Amino acid sequence: MKIPFSYIIRNFVKRRQTSIITVLGIGLVVFVFVAVLMMANGIKQTLVTTGSDRNILVSRKSSQGEITSIIDRDAANIIATMPGIAKNAEGKPMLSAEPVVVINLFKKEGGLSNVTVRGVAPEVFSVREQVKVREGRLFKFGSRELIVGSAINKNFAGTKIGDKVKFAGDMWTIVGIADAGGRGFDSEMWGDADQLMNAFNRSAYSTMTFRMADGASLDAFKTQFARESRLQYFEPKIEQKYYEEQSELMATFISVLG
Known about the structure:
Shape: elongated
Mean pLDDT: 85
Largest sheet: 7 strands, mixed
């Protein structure tokens, strides 16, 4: 039998509290689900645009096939001398070997949160042209100075130009604010790679990123890379592809959690 519309109205009025709770509950579920999907998609889009299809990123590969950190200096020197890497006007390889660490900073609204600190080489801005110093100046290589991404400057306390950040037992001075156009680098701090490695007593890099020379073949580079026995534990990938794979893991986790 069809239930009369008037009966539905009377039932809603009589059980008003239960009906309102049911509607709000369904609405909340829909809101959370949509918000989670938006968050997962936002993370994926941000990380994918962080990389460049003109750059190659080299990272260490474990025996299980998982990408892990630590590229020793010997391996870094071998990679830096391989053909296919673009050179700048001074004839230096357009390459940045980078240690990456994570520190804790207080957010402006309260509470601690993780912040990535990346050590870079002087040639980094020819490799990652999308990153520009918007305010202040670039840090001096050989000194314990930092530039902070625009998102860090916006959301974390004590990250203005002239402020000092303490980590690895020393004070690091913020001298500039960088803008990466909404890419993942906006949420990082950058400093001199050698200074960062000395501060944390490291002897190896996390990753290496370089610009491919015009006309160079990625397949040819990979073939030569594979022939070098001392590089058998490392893997070169297009930078954009690397970040895309990283984003898929995070986006999948968030989606399943949602």
